[in-house]
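In the lab's daily routine, each protein ends up as an entry in a very long ledger. A line of letters takes care of the sequence, but it says nothing directly about the fold. The three-dimensional part falls to structure tokens, numbers that each stand for a local backbone shape. The outcome of that step, for a single protein, is printed below.
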Amino acid sequence: MRLVGKNVERLAEELAELRPAPETVVTIGVFDGVHLGHQRVVRRTVERARETGRAPVGITFYPHPLQVHQPEAAPKLIIPFAERVRLLESLGLVRVIPMAYSPELARLSAAEYLGLLVEALGMRELVVGPDFTVGRNREGTVPVLARLGPELGFALTVVELVALEARVSSSAIRALISAGDVEQAAVLLGRPVTLWGRVVAGEGRGRELGFPTANLSTDPEVLLPADGVYAAWAEVRTVRYPAAVSIGVRPTFGPGPRLVEAYLLDFAGNLYGENVKLELIKRLRPELAFSAAAALIEQMRRDVEQVRKLLTERVTDDGSTGPNPSA
């Protein structure tokens, strides 16, 4: 995916090339996770564009700004960058602009940066959340933007978040995922915590134990949940299967590299090379070291039974049945 703004001197030219209409309504942010608060801001952007006859545009930054300012404190991402762009587009933005976050971009003042958007992107309205900041040293707070708007030629809409949305943040979601609380993280995201990966060859340990698992190579930039066993839905070629997912170092056989392994219930076939999507529904237990393989096998049987029971109950609740093509 091509990032705009790698050369700040060409930013205006690149924005002009991507301008989808003479006048636009713009929202700006990192948007990692595209959580409930982000969704509300983006939907308001789309509404304001519809009301004013303009085109709704989103700008999202990569890498995370902390990678530039404090690399040692930069967080892992909640979702891959390409998935972030896809989700933003799915909310109704006609153009999502992936913008390179760099020291050069960070040195622009709020007035300089927003002036570029007005001139090159046709921004006539900016839609932000109440804690939004932009520009050098985060100088462009909401009160500052309210003063800059009339000078530069854009209106400002501040979206007030209500109830649950006001407590949502990407940092809070990362903390929940790191603790293995994928259920509460899903509440704040508005969808399940999800991992994506390609199935690669492993040691064949699961097959030896009677539970052949798919060993997933995941994006190293994306945060993995706490080690343990999870009930999940696995999607392969648009078909969904209940799955028991293990994340960890397999301590029963001696600590090794951290792995994501999925045992797909009711699946028969070869998964090597396939892209698999895992929606993590509930953490069943932490990772454990067993004294012998037999004890591990017995626990895996219990894990699979628990996964089937849990996901069957949830399928019954929402009226769907069995493995099915995903929406």
